[in-house]
Amino acid sequence: MLIYLRIIKESFNFAINALKNNRLRTFLSLLGVTIGIFSIIAVLAAVDSLEKEVKGSLSTLDSSTIIIMRFSFGPSEIPQWKREQFPDVSYAEYQYLKKNIPQTEAITYSLNVSRETISFGGKQVEGVEIGAVGSEYYDIEALKLEDGRFFNEAEANSGSPVIILGNEIAENLFGQAIASIGNKVRLYGRKFTVIGVLEKEGASMFGQSKDASVFLPVNVTRRIYGDNNKSTFPQIIVKPEKDIDNAEYIAILEQQLRIFRGLKPNEVSTFFINQLQGFTDFIDNITGQLNFMGMIISGFSLLVGGFGIANIMFVSVKERTNLIGIQKSLGAKNKFILLQFLFEAVVLAVIGGLVGLFLVWIITLVASSFTEDFNFVLSTFNIIIGMSVSAIIGLISGIIPAISASRLDPVEAIRTGM
């Protein structure tokens, strides 16, 4: 065992000395590997960062959460012209499902309405996102309040003029969040009493944040927009109880809504039951494809880098033919010569990989500093991938030159080198 360790150590020293003695050649050789590793890790880091940010934006919602609406989150076999004729889900359907669907932890009705301007005294905030929801949305979204409370079921059903402010909205209108409770703000030309303020959460990658949102009872907006307004995109949001049969629950949900709409067995469902788990699976599929395509493109760079290392190793073998002959005549075995050149190729590739990783790290720091709400991530897993790929490229590129060097006849090698 000690003999092999000594061989590895001496081979490593030979490789390092060879690289030091030919610095320009070393630089040109590792440039291809550096570009290849940089391309692969940059793609992986960018896709991982995107995936993390997207899933982080959905982290407040349980993956089992179901959204019923006339639109589908993913591709559908139903023709577009037919989907465009689907009716919106109604408040009556929400009430029916609330009474008839067992094993439901929370269910709420929601409207997606346009942004508005909210004001208090002489101050106003434009472009405020309106969350028109029911009382149980608080449990579905797992909202966190800094002060006050969320509106209850009675207030939601009656459409009471109460409102929950995002942290940023409260600070812009009142200077500080705790001063908001009990004050009346103006929205839709009406006065709403502030009963709660959300905790500050920061913006997501899409620029959206509950900090710049307000929440009010959905029946308030129903009275303003009406139930037949196609611009409101109504939806029913359902959170099933934990540890239930998900497929069975969705089947019951679909059957009950079909019964309410009076659909015949041979008719397609005129609504879509979208589950966030399916959406996250869709994201995983997209990111997987992006990673795959990025690695294929980067693979061409690595291929060029690998050929560069192989070429330079053949040159190195030719230049040191005389030295190889002397080493063999003094008793050096074939495996020592083999390991010597393999180590040189691997070390060359690994150094190129390290430079590529360093460049990616610098770019992630710079990019993160310019994008306040989006952080680029260089994970340990990606670093391990980069170093492993570098070593494998060096091993593959150096194997043939190393074998040719180890098989040289010592007498012919000395004679050739003279």
TrEMBL record:
<feature type="transmembrane region" description="Helical">
    <location>
        <begin position="383"/>
        <end position="405"/>
    </location>
</feature>
<keyword id="KW-0472">Membrane</keyword>
<dbReference type="InterPro" id="IPR050250">
    <property type="entry name" value="Macrolide_Exporter_MacB"/>
</dbReference>
<keyword id="KW-0812">Transmembrane</keyword>
<keyword id="KW-1003">Cell membrane</keyword>
<dbReference type="GO" id="GO:0022857">
    <property type="term" value="F:transmembrane transporter activity"/>
</dbReference>
<dbReference type="GO" id="GO:0005886">
    <property type="term" value="C:plasma membrane"/>
</dbReference>
<feature type="domain" description="ABC3 transporter permease C-terminal">
    <location>
        <begin position="295"/>
        <end position="410"/>
    </location>
</feature>
<dbReference type="InterPro" id="IPR003838">
    <property type="entry name" value="ABC3_permease_C"/>
</dbReference>
<feature type="transmembrane region" description="Helical">
    <location>
        <begin position="27"/>
        <end position="47"/>
    </location>
</feature>
<keyword id="KW-1133">Transmembrane helix</keyword>
<protein>
    <submittedName>
        <fullName>Putative ABC transport system permease protein</fullName>
    </submittedName>
</protein>
<dbReference type="Pfam" id="PF12704">
    <property type="entry name" value="MacB_PCD"/>
</dbReference>
<comment type="similarity">
    <text>Belongs to the ABC-4 integral membrane protein family.</text>
</comment>
<feature type="transmembrane region" description="Helical">
    <location>
        <begin position="292"/>
        <end position="315"/>
    </location>
</feature>
<dbReference type="InterPro" id="IPR025857">
    <property type="entry name" value="MacB_PCD"/>
</dbReference>
<feature type="transmembrane region" description="Helical">
    <location>
        <begin position="336"/>
        <end position="363"/>
    </location>
</feature>
<feature type="domain" description="MacB-like periplasmic core">
    <location>
        <begin position="26"/>
        <end position="254"/>
    </location>
</feature>
<dbReference type="Pfam" id="PF02687">
    <property type="entry name" value="FtsX"/>
</dbReference>
